[in-house]
Amino acid sequence: MNVNIVLFDDFETMDAMGSAQVFGKAPEHFYLNYLSLNGGIINSSQGVKIWTEILIPQEVEDILVIPGGRGARKLLCLETKALKSLKAAAQEADVCMMVGNGSFVLAQTGLLYRRRIADFPGDENWKRMFTAEIIREQNACWISDGKYYSSSSTMAGIDMSLGVVSDLLDLDVAIRIAKEIGYEWNQEMS
Fold first, then answer.
1. What pLDDT, in 10s, does the model give residues 152-167?
2. How far apart, in whole angstroms, are the C-alpha atoms of residue 173 and residue 138?
3. pLDDT category, 130, cuts 50, 70, 90?
4. DSSP E strands: which ranges in the chain?
5. Is the pLDDT of residue 4 over 90?
6. DSSP labels for 150-171?
7. Phi, psi at 84, each rounded to 5°
8. Is 110 left (phi over 0), alpha (psi -120 to 50) or beta?
9. CB of 178 closer than 8 Å to CB of 142
10. Share of residues in the chain with pLDDT > 70 (%)
């Protein structure tokens, strides 16, 4: 299965790399793709530079991962082309994962209308503005609502990634991966 991690400048490094670590531990099942709107080098908030391929929504299949970070807020305000591409990519994917305020981004596309997402720390005014008509679960670490998975934080994003592995493959595979990366997995969604 393809794991398509969509990056944008000022993304939160661990939001993306936590999921990459989980899926990357099962290369016999998952192939990682790093994508961005224009391709090329993308910089995280922490200064990590990652080479990306161009996001072609029609070619996205299997899993789409949208990290959070400061760049998510910039993306909402400045990039209508990016939002259209992300919406199309999310519609093509079988599973769409959002880490932290990565939910803001997908919320703007209308795909999360009346769906449940895990609430995340942040400015309440921004949340009200960008998650209207979306049910924010206050105490959830991570949630799945249909094909949409969301997490409240970076570490909950790792829990969510293991949950996706369990849902798509097998619980034993997820447990093996958690042990290999030395991670104590919180299997509970809330």
1. 999 999 999 999 999 9
2. 29
3. low
4. 2-6, 31-36, 40-43, 49-54, 63-66, 95-99, 116-118, 135-137, 142-145, 148-151
5. yes
6. EESSHHHHHHHHHHHHHHHT-H
7. -65, -40
8. left
9. no
10. 92
106: which 2 tokens?
């997908």
CA-wise closest residue to 57 among 40, 37, 77, 75: 37
Q: Which two tokens stand for residue 159?
A: 């829990």
Nearest to 29 by CA among 154, 181, 164: 164
- In 3D space, the residue among 86, 64, 74 whose CA is nearest the CA of residue 19 turns out to be 64
Give the pLDDT score at 67: 96
The band of 129, judged by pLDDT with boundaries at 50, 70 and 90, is low
Supply the DSSP symbol for 134. Answer: S
